[in-house]
Amino acid sequence: MTWYKNKGNEGDVVLSTRVRLARNLEDYPFPIRLDAREKQEVSLLVGEALSDYKDKNLKYIDMSQISPAQAVSYAEKHLISPEFAYEGTGRALLLSDEEDISIMLCEEDHIRIQVILPGLSLDEAFSQADTIDTVIENRLNYAFNDSIGYLTQCPTNLGTGMRASVMLHLPALRKKGAMRSLSATVAKLGLTLRGSYGEGSEISGDIYQLSNQVTLGISEKAALQNLTSIAMQIVSQERQARAALIKDEDFIDKIYRSWGILRSAYKLTSQELTNLISYVRMGAANGIIDVPAEKLTQMFIELQPATINVAEGKNLSQNERDILRAEKVRKELE
């Protein structure tokens, strides 16, 4: 199930759920110590270990054999990390047809299993990731310590090696000025609130990523329960803030103006699209604008710069993309 094309649980606020497991093979140094040939060897070993995985068709993609635009497009869709997109030598990606499963090979760790689903679906995402993890572990030996748990290149991932996150659309809480205090509060609870592309990324379109920070000394179940509980509290706060905000006539006017621009603009930059969709998506979720919220999310993802280039089969100039982006939006919202 492609996450950005479907609406999941609590989909008015929660865009997606991601669970990622970091694993390393016992017989190889961490990727930072491997040369290109050794990275490729590890990638092929893992690919072979999953060759008879029947639940999903996983396509093996040699990252050195795809275009830079395709690699960046995968990052724009949150299927790989931005860092993984910019250095493909020796690296590979296993990707399901529906793009709900992506496995980065020889990124920071040998294996990064990722499941991404629409809405709030932490248990389901973990179950899928855990199944894949078991298939690999039955074929290959993981680097594991009885006291510490799974060994990872970065010490902050030791233990479960699990990072779980939910992507949240929080325009009302941002407008209310609540994000700084909210970020400080969740930090005390072992979570972090960042931009949609994780650590160091900017906040765009009022989209935030809430994820667990603690991986050592805590079980996957406990971490998922904590994240689910805090996510639902934030969802409730956002809905309350929205209920107050939609009584503001000036804000309602902003929603309608954004809707009008999307339906009539001749040119739209990626940033303009993101900002306008944020207003309209909130209006759609609250019954002000008659358009499916998931359609807006899909446009936000599929009309990013590199993803447009891939769809068109050529590298367009920024001006060409801005004109084409606006044209596609107008057609979608007719």
Walk me through this protein's architecture.
By secondary structure, the protein is α+β, with helices and mostly antiparallel strands. Helices cover 46% and strands 17% of the residues. It has helices at residues 36-49, 68-76, 82-85, 122-139, 171-176, 179-188, 220-245, 249-264, 270-285, 293-302, 305-312, 318-332, and strands spanning 14-23, 58-62, 92-96, 101-105, 111-118, 144-145, 149-150, 162-169, 191-195, 207-212.
Keywords:
two-stranded antiparallel sheet, single chain, alpha+beta, 334 residues
Please summarize what this structure is.
46% of the residues lie in helices and 17% in strands. With 334 residues, the chain is of the alpha+beta class.
Gyration radius, to the nearest Å?
Answer: 20 Å
The ordered string of helix (H) and strand (E) elements is: EHEHHEEEHEEEHHEEHHHHHH
Mean pLDDT: 94
Number of helices: 12
Overall geometry:
globular
Q: What's the story with the biggest beta sheet?
A: 8 strands, antiparallel
Strand content: 15-25%
**Proportion of residues in helical segments:** 40-55%
Strand order of the largest sheet: 2-3-4-5-1-8-10-9
**Gap from first CA to last CA:** 26 Å
- How many DSSP-defined strands? 10
Q: Output the structural class.
A: alpha+beta
Poorly predicted regions: none
